[in-house]
UniProtKB/TrEMBL annotation:
It comes from Acanthosepion pharaonis. This is Uncharacterized protein. It comes from the Eukaryota. Keywords: Membrane, Transmembrane, Transmembrane helix. The chain crosses the membrane at residues 7-36, 42-73, 85-106, 112-132, 139-156, 176-204.
Length: 212
């Protein structure tokens, strides 16, 4: 017991140094990850460079975090018994991993929803403009409009908002309340797009029925 207490006494400063290093690396990686996402967004907006570099640095940051937590769990296993260690491992690693994988899956689903709702809204606006401005029907025809708008919609739907959507969704889904889900940014945009598209299509349908 005396040997273990002396061993713990000598390792106590190292534990604090490792905790400070882990906290500093975690804050630095999160700051670098968010800063690089904004920088790459601006770079893509001005130069239209492929986002492979962003995906590489995004995967690198999460790899660095996983390695840091891996060594943290190895070091904490010296001070915990097996039951406490496995409970600690389950509570701090497996449950956040589940939310992380769910957030990754939802980010891809959100990208698809964004693309289709952008397309749906632009199509409804196209029908409304065709109805209101009949003289511009030649310009807003389907081939010319989609030849211009489809690359823009594809670029907007595949913009590098992975880290922001990941942070928003992972923190929003920790509380499963309808109000939180309603006013969270992905769901609120989807509801807004649905409402605007339904309103435009209903307005167009009513005006066509009145003309008949």
């Amino acid at each position: 017991m005396i040997l273990f207490s002396s061993f713990f006494f000598y390792l106590f400063p190292f534990f604090f140094f490792f905790a400070f290093l882990l906290l500093f690396s975690f804050c630095f990686v999160i700051f670098f990850h968010v800063f690089f996402s904004y920088a790459c967004t601006l770079f893509l907006f001005f130069f239209h460079f492929p986002s492979l570099l962003y995906c590489f640095f995004s995967s690198f940051t999460f790899f660095f975090l996983s390695v840091s937590f891996h060594y943290f769990f190895i070091f904490s296993s010296f001070f915990l018994d097996y039951e406490q260690f496995f409970f600690f491992l389950f509570f701090f690693l497996l449950i956040p991993s589940f939310f992380f994988l769910f957030a990754v899956f939802f980010s891809y689903v959100r990208t698809l929803f964004r693309f289709f709702f952008f397309l749906f809204s632009f199509t409804s606006i196209l029908f409304l403009l065709q109805f209101l401005f009949r003289r511009l029907r030649t310009f807003f025809s389907f081939p010319s409009f989609f030849s211009v708008s489809f690359p823009l919609l594809l670029y907007l739907s595949s913009s590098p908002s992975f880290s922001l959507s990941l942070d928003i969704v992972s923190f929003r889904f920790l509380s499963f309340f309808p109000i939180t889900l309603l006013f969270s940014s992905p769901f609120f945009l989807i509801y807004l797009h649905c409402f605007l598209s339904f309103f435009l299509f209903s307005l167009l349908h009513q005006t066509r029925e009145k003309q008949k």
